[in-house]
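Take one record.
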Amino acid sequence: MERQVVSCRRCPRLVSWRELSARNPPKRFMKETYWARPLPALGDPRAKVLIVGLAPAAHGGNRTGRMFTGDESGRFLFGALHATGFANRAESLHPGDGFELRGALLSAACRCAPPANRPTPQEFDNCRGYLAAELALLPADTILVALGALAFDACLRVLVERGEQIPGPRPRFAHGARYQIGRHVVLTTYHPSQQNTFTGKLTQGMLREVFRRARREVLKSDE
């Protein structure tokens, strides 16, 4: 599965952008060698919590080769995961640094860095099979945590394709929402982007509460 992800070239626009970004890094990363390929999921392959983000940052995950690693969004996210027991440390720096996720798998709706941080509908469609394949390998009652509205939409589409019945009216994204879809619980949070965290729209307390709720859902499903 990982080999299929990292060798993917389905989206010409994303291939071009991820490689262009690697050839034109900001000054602070001039001496670094960029990953510049799609990113595989990060974490526990037996997890009962699947965290779904949007896409790698051009000079974050696209540089380091690890989900959410190397940018401010990742620092915010991993701080919350560490505080709630899903990570062994509060910071992920680079592959091989000893960072681990525990009981969680971190994935994304799109695996390549997109221009303006916005994949096209076709690019989302091209990537959705990877997310579906990861979910299929996890327990049947896996809890999904969607980071933002676009990730939430990707989760719903994957569940529909798996044959799950979406309740009516169709679930709508809102921070802190909870939806039961088949055997899966889907929790939602604002994306930990700088636009949200720097303005206070999403605080550490808010994000930690979502992950504490995910842990409670795991315990409930194990009863």
